[in-house]
């Protein structure tokens, strides 16, 4: 069952990334294009659980590896989740997610 879920996530991620790349002038998704909240929130409960976060990160890493690229900081998934989960309630809500995105944009 878990391999089925991973396969479905990889397909969805591939379609999502392909759709995002269409708007770029050279057809390549740029690193500045971060995944959307809904990409992580697979059960659509308006919260990203640690399990959803890890599942998405692993699927994203597998996709990049299949393309010959690597996902930076993939080994510290737990630390990343904790850094984004500002209120430490074991879930990332839309506000925390957006706050993290803004911080990442501003750090570049």
Q: Assign the structural class, choosing from mainly alpha, mainly beta, alpha/beta, alpha+beta, or little secondary structure.
A: mainly alpha
The helicity comes to 55-70%
Please provide the count of β strands. Answer: 2
The major beta sheet can be summarized as:
2 strands, antiparallel
Distance between the first and last residues' Cα: 39 Å
Percent of residues in β-strands? 5-15%
Shape: globular
Strand order of the largest sheet: 1-2
Number of helices: 5
Radius of gyration: 14 Å
The helix-strand sequence is: HHEHHEH
Name its key features.
mainly alpha, 2 strands, 108 residues, two-stranded antiparallel sheet
Task: Give a verbal description of the structure.
- The protein is mainly α.
- The chain has helices at residues 2-22, 37-40, 50-66, 77-84, 94-106, and strands spanning 47-49, 91-93.
- The chain has a two-stranded antiparallel sheet.
- Helix 1 (2-22) packs across helix 3.
- The chain is globular and about 35 Å long.
Give a summary of the structure in a few sentences.
By secondary structure, the protein is mostly helical. The chain has helices spanning 2-22, 37-40, 50-66, 77-84, 94-106, and strands at 47-49, 91-93. It contains five helices and two strands.
Topology of this protein?
Elements: H1 2-22, H2 37-40, E1 47-49, H3 50-66, H4 77-84, E2 91-93, H5 94-106
Antiparallel strand pairs: 1-2
Helix pairs in contact: 1-3
């Amino acid at each position: 069952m878990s391999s089925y879920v991973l396969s479905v996530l990889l397909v969805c991620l591939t379609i999502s990334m392909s759709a995002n790349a269409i708007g770029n002038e050279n057809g390549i998704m740029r690193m500045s294009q971060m995944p959307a909240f809904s990409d992580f929130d697979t059960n659509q409960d308006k919260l990203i659980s640690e399990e959803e976060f890890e599942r998405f990160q692993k699927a994203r890493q597998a996709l990049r590896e299949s393309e010959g690229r690597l996902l930076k900081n993939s080994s510290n998934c737990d630390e990343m989740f904790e850094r984004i989960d500002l209120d430490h309630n074991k879930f990332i809500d839309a506000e925390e997610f957006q706050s993290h995105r803004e911080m990442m944009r501003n750090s570049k």
